[in-house]
Write a structure and sequence with these properties.
- Helix content is 43%, strand content 10%.
- Helix 1 packs across helix 3 and helix 3 runs antiparallel to helix 4.
């Protein structure tokens, strides 16, 4: 793995300040490290955030490539940096600057393809903690795997999100204020749902509520339980992203962990969930209780 592949080109496709649909580079700041280029509207003082994002993503890439056997996004193969845009979001966050920046108003935290078919990342300035950056960073290295399986999204969506959240929490250092597990109460709020239920495969007529549509993020606690309580090796969670053939994550876990083992583990996990998530620490419970009240 080249820490910084030679000859990468900078090509932003967002940041139009005058309405001509062409990015205005002179109105933006950019910093690079490794394969990442972080952009922001130069009217804002976000360089410290940009440097934190770059250092965090650099570590995620090193871990994913060297230790987990995952692949760089296609940007690198085609000679481009992966662009990361810090933006002012008014979609989910009340802490807006009240100033329009150069980027779309309805962006949130995501990894998505641009019109060239290259993945890019967006991060709201209001929420650039390590958890979120690692979560979206892990998506970058899942990208080559799941972009070939878009027709399977109804089977894969829950695992893509749950494993990214699990990874983000697992790689946190002890000094960080980990914001994972904030949605775990969605599990007990809807205990009847299949583990692979997401907004993409819900039934016609299901209510459009976050307790249903965001439940897949909460399933990080299932992967955490398997590893930390049931001693399932952590590489089982990530080795799926090295499989080239068609794969169903639920079946993958069933086969890798063993049918009898997984039946017992799943039953144990469900029981612990009803006991106020007894496998979570007091700090983790504090996060989910706070967001539940909110």
């Amino acid at each position: 793995m080249d820490s910084e592949p030679p000859g990468l080109r900078i090509k932003p496709l967002f940041g139009d300040g005058d309405g001509d649909k062409i990015p205005d580079i002179e109105l933006m700041e950019v910093r690079t490290l490794g394969i990442f280029a972080v952009w922001w509207d130069k009217r804002f003082e976000w360089e410290s955030r940009a440097n934190f994002i770059l250092k965090t993503l650099y570590k995620v890439r090193e871990d994913c490539i060297k230790n987990l056997g995952m692949s760089d996004p296609k940007n690198v193969r085609l000679g481009f940096y992966l662009n990361v845009y810090i933006h002012d979001s008014d979609l989910y966050y009340s802490g807006s600057t009240k100033k329009d920046d150069l980027f779309p108003d309805k962006w949130y935290a995501m990894v998505k393809d641009n019109r060239m078919g290259l993945p890019y990342m967006t991060l709201p300035w209001q929420d650039t903690d390590g958890d979120l950056v690692r979560h979206e960073g892990f998506h970058v290295f899942q990208n080559e795997w799941y972009r070939k399986r878009t027709k399977q999204w109804h089977e894969l969506g829950w695992y893509i999100e749950a494993s990214a959240s699990w990874y983000a929490a697992d790689r946190a250092n002890q000094k960080e204020s980990v914001t994972s597990y904030e949605r775990v109460h969605f599990i007990t709020a809807n205990p009847h749902l299949a583990i692979w239920h997401t907004e993409h495969n819900k039934k016609i007529g299901d209510p459009n509520e976050k307790e249903l549509n965001q439940r897949q993020y909460a399933l990080e606690c299932y992967l955490f339980f398997l590893c930390e309580v049931c001693n399932v090796p952590k590489n089982i969670i990530t080795d799926i992203f090295k499989i080239k053939d068609k794969v169903n994550p639920a079946e993958y876990l069933f086969r890798k962990i063993g049918s009898q083992n997984l039946r017992e583990f799943f039953t144990y996990w469900a029981a612990c969930n009803t006991d106020d998530f007894s496998y979570l620490s007091n700090v983790q419970k504090k996060i989910y209780r706070y967001t539940k009240v909110e």
